Amino acid sequence: MNKYIKLASVLLVLTGFVGCTTRIGDFTVISTKNCDVAAGGKYIKKGSFEGDDMALMIIVIPTGFPNLKTAVDKCIEAGDGDLITNAVLSSKFWWAVLVGSSGYEVKGDVWRSASRSDIENPNIQKYTLVETPQGRQLVSDLNPSERLAVLDSNNPNSYTIK
Question: What's the rounded Cα separation, in Å, for the pair 157 and 72?
C-alpha cells in the first residue's frame, strides 16, 4: 500500500508542473514606433534580440495582465532600434501547483535608421531599402546579393506601416 501512495504522490507532483509555448505568428516587419520607411532609406541591423511581457499568477489570481505591445517594445529597446524583421511572436505560460505565469515573447532581428556618422563609416554594414519588381527589399551596401524581402509584391499584406 505504501508503494501506491508514493507513486500517487510522485504523479501528483509531476502533473502540478506544466508549461506551454504557442506560436502566434511570424511577421516580415513589425514595429510599435512611428518610423519613416521610405525607399532609399539606410538601415543598420543591430542583431537578433528578444523581449517579453509576463504576468505572475498566484493560485488563479493574476498580479497583472501581459501586453503584446510591451513585449514588442522590449525587443526593440533591447536592440536600440526602430523595427523588427523576421519577428516570431509566441504566447507562453507555465504553472507550478499554486504559482504560474503567462504572457508574450517576441524574437527577431532589430534594425534602426542609419545616422550620418553610420553612413560615413565604411566599416559599418548598411542596408538600403529599394523598390524591385518583387517588392521592397533591404539590400546590403557591401554585398548587393544579400537581400531581405520587406514587401513581397505577390503578397500585398506582407508589409504594412502607417
Answer: 20
Which secondary-structure segment (H or E) carries 25? strand 17-30
Amino acid at 127: Y
pLDDT in tens, 10-62: 666 666 677 888 999 999 889 998 877 777 788 999 999 999 999 999 987 88
Q: Look up residue 106 and give its three cell numbers.
A: 517576441
Q: Which residues are within 8 A (CB) of 109 and not within 5 positions of it... i.e. 6 or more apart?
A: 45, 46, 47, 48, 49, 84, 85, 86
Measured distance CA(26)–CA(28) in Å, rounded: 7
Instruction: Evaluate if residue 6 carries a pLDDT over 80.
Output: no
Q: Which of 153, 159, 17 is nearest to 93 (CA)?
A: 17
Q: How far is Cα 151 from Cα 159, in angstroms, rounded to an integer? A: 5
**From the CB of residue 81, how many other CB atoms can be counted at a distance below 10 Å?**
24
For residues 104 and 75, what is the distance between their CA atoms, to the nearest angstrom? 11
